[in-house]
Design goal:
Helix content: 25-40%
Distance between the termini: 56 Å
Number of helices: 7
Largest sheet: 7 strands, mixed
Order of helices and strands: EEEEEEEEHEHHHHHH
Shape: elongated
Number of domains: 2
Structural class: alpha+beta
């Protein structure tokens, strides 16, 4: 491998023995200048670039350090897949054999579009999708504040939701319903926008609870949110 970056993972399974532990995995995608990242970080662009930014789903060929349990560390038994979504590292997994990097002659593959033109599901496990959603939203919110643009977070979340598998959507549907009970009005606004866009009917009980809560609050902001919540309930019923 020539120029590369590294991702540090604290719970990465060894392809040889299956032991879970800390591993450093090297890969070539983004600005390759021996940057060190962790899962959830957004990668850097604008230098010694390999690939191009902005794809919904990318997988890169990875090479891991020696396993602390079995010592496996040769290229043949330390191969990994590093998954990216919208330039954020979302997962590091043992090589599945599904992706033929040698045939493609590049150390990464863009998975954005299937034959039907739909986005491939994000390579994020059901157990970690909630954490990834929250991290993605937080980062998008920081970028929104910097750009002074209000709707960008909602639009980003809507596009992210489109890429989710059915199991991942079930987890995020439950998370969105829970977020309706948050004290953060911006978080509730974002959640309602995604719920409305995708007609998530399982959120109706939480919307009803929200209306009861808002009825006990004064001020124009509470009244506006109450009207929006009631209208959304009517739309979903």
């Amino acid at each position: 491998m020539a120029a590369f970056n590294e991702v540090i993972g604290s719970a990465i399974a060894c392809p040889a023995c299956g032991a879970v532990g800390a591993r450093v995995v090297q890969y070539s995608f983004g600005d390759t200048w021996q940057y060190r990242y962790r899962i959830g970080d957004r990668i850097t662009w604008g230098g010694n670039d390999v690939g191009e930014p902005g794809h919904a789903s990318v997988v890169a060929d990875g090479y891991g350090t020696a396993c602390q349990s079995c010592g496996a560390g040769e290229p043949s038994d330390a191969r990994f897949e590093v998954h990216f979504a919208h330039d954020v590292i979302v997962a590091v997994e043992p090589a599945s054999g599904k992706y033929d990097f040698e045939k493609s002659h590049v150390p990464y593959l863009v998975l954005d579009a299937s034959k039907e033109g739909r986005l491939e599901p994000l390579a994020v496990s059901r157990d970690t999708i909630r954490e990834y959603w929250a991290t993605y939203r937080d980062r998008a919110d920081i970028e929104r504040v910097a750009a002074k643009s209000s709707p960008s977070v909602v639009l980003d979340l809507i596009e992210l939701y489109r890429t989710l598998s059915s199991e991942q959507r079930n987890e995020i549907d439950a998370l969105l319903a829970e977020q309706l009970n948050s004290d953060d009005g911006t978080l509730r606004f974002d959640s309602m926008a995604v719920i409305q866009e995708f007609k998530i009917r399982s959120a109706v009980p939480s919307l009803v609870k929200l209306t009861v809560r808002l009825q006990g609050q004064a001020g124009p902001q509470a009244r506006n949110e109450l009207a929006k919540a009631q209208a959304l309930i009517d739309e979903l019923d």
